[in-house]
Prior knowledge:
Layout: H1 13-80, H2 82-93, H3 96-105, H4 113-123, E1 128-134, E2 139-144, E3 150-155, H5 157-164, E4 168-173, E5 179-184, H6 186-194, E6 201-206, E7 209-214, H7 224-231, E8 236-241, E9 244-251, E10 256-263, H8 265-315, H9 330-342, H10 346-369, H11 373-389, H12 393-411, E11 415-417, H13 418-436, E12 440-445, H14 448-451, E13 454-456, H15 460-471, E14 479-487, E15 492-493, E16 499-500, E17 502-509, H16 516-525, H17 541-552, E18 556-562, E19 568-575
Parallel strand pairs: 12-14
Antiparallel strand pairs: 1-2, 1-5, 2-3, 4-5, 6-7, 6-10, 8-9, 9-10, 11-13, 14-17, 15-16, 17-19, 18-19
Helix pairs in contact: 1-2, 1-4, 1-6, 1-8, 8-9, 11-12, 12-13
Protein name: Histidine kinase
GO molecular function, one term: phosphorelay sensor kinase activity
Keywords: Kinase, Membrane, Transferase, Transmembrane, Transmembrane helix
Amino acid sequence: MTAKPNRYFLNLRIYRxxxxxxxxxxxxxxxxxFAALAMLARNMGLRFFSSEANxxxxxxxxxxxxxxxxxxxxxxxxxxxxxxxxxxxxxxxSTPSEYTAYRLENPYAAESYLDECSSLVSETDFxxxxxxxxxxxxxxxxxxxxxxxxRWRSIxxxxxxxxxxxxxTVVREVESAGSVTFVIDxxxxxxxxxxTGGAAAAAxxxxxxxxxxxxxxxxxxxxxxxxxSEGSPEPYFTREGGGVFYSAxxxxxxxxxxxxxxxxxxxxxxxxxxxxIIGLAVAAGFAVVTVFYARKFSKDSVFIQEILLSMxxxxxxxxxxxxxGSRRDEYAMIASNLNSLYEHLQALIEQRYKxxxxxxxxxxxxxxxxxxxHFLYNTLESIRLRAMKEGDAHLAEATGSLGSLxxxxxKTEPVxxxxxxxxxxxxxxxLMCFLDEDSFIYHIDVxxxxxxxxxxxxxxxxxxxxxxxxxFRDTDELKVVVISGSELQEPEAAPSxxxxxxxxxxxxxxxxxxxxxxxxxxxxxFGGRGSDQEPSGGIGLRSVWYRLQLFYSGRVSMSIxxxxxxxxxxxxxxxxxxxxxxxxxxxx
Length: 588
């Protein structure tokens, strides 16, 4: 095995140190770029989080303002409607049974404070959880659930203080007759607006009571009280710490402080992806530059190694000249002197090559002469005559078909017509009829217009043989092979010759089945022009495809599919040659 020059110029000490210093500088630059991009991605993620936190805070403030406005609207109606005001005082000054009796005594009372409160709670998306009326003598509580259910009860002052502690409240005085306190569920509102993400959490501080909502799986170590106290004097701040983004807002309208938090990964996916793409693009740019310089450095390295390898081969009597090309330096002068030493050996090399070829041809001719085809023809003819003499017409016919088939294979020209190729296939089918007796029949129906088409010799017989090898094997069922041909009425797409008319030949069997993977693999193999080398492994469908592609220069298509309920169909389309300016060029 002849050694080849090593293209890695780092093997030469004259280049190694310089290139390693260059690589170190490039790596430092790429590291700096990635660090800057990571910082930029972090800032972008923080901005995304800050924008979302601000948006959620604005929605929360709008909802609270809407609740406050709706409460004011209720009191406007209360003051403007005497019947509603009367019902209001009856409601809060009576026990539930007394109020029920009042409503029964006045069944036509149009206005109901209880209905107005229910409408208010529904209008504000059920964020009002309690409505407290304090008359100075007793406290009545209307409790509402998010499902719309309500409960009316009398509570103590301690219970009222517990209900309002840590909650957002809206208080309205009623004509010096007491006050009405609307208790708003802060946790529900904060959860709706801040905890839409999979791992978001928030802490709400109202009157010194801290309520944490949202995901609690990752934030056990978060100092919520410290963050709330830090955010209290400031109207707003956003920052990052420990892989978590924080944002704090203090409301001057409703007197609460809210801190939201989320793992930075929730907001860093897109910025990091963009930073990674940019970083990889920069790294790819440096890689291209590095490859460019490496190729320049490799030229001298390869040429020096070629000279050294050439000298090494000369030690073992293998004289290979060095390709100088356009080089005009001292290395080229050394290579030129070496080449002049090798020139006088070229004649001897050519002489030895021609002698070897001549010996190979003689050996092939000697091996071919060992087989005399006439001996086989005469033997088959003698068997046929003896079978006829003994009255075995089937054996005589089969023997004659075998001899005729062998003559067609051996003596026929490499290029024949479709008609002659069908005759060879028919002789093979007759032999199969003889071998399988009454369990095999065939039918051939090809239009006369297709019989004169030139084609390579012996490609139909391997297709038919595949049926017997794979589809008809180990079965006593009736076997049927049909060969049919038809003209392509509507031009079909030829793989490399544009669109043209032609003929289709179909080879069908009634038994067998090809798996889905097998069909996909074969049709994929039949989808291109074929490789430059003939497929190995004997004569099969791939070899048939290869030969037809070469002969028709790509003006052929081949596909295989399963029949219903059983059997296989192989379809081959041979297209006419198309000329014209609009015909796309053949695949290279």
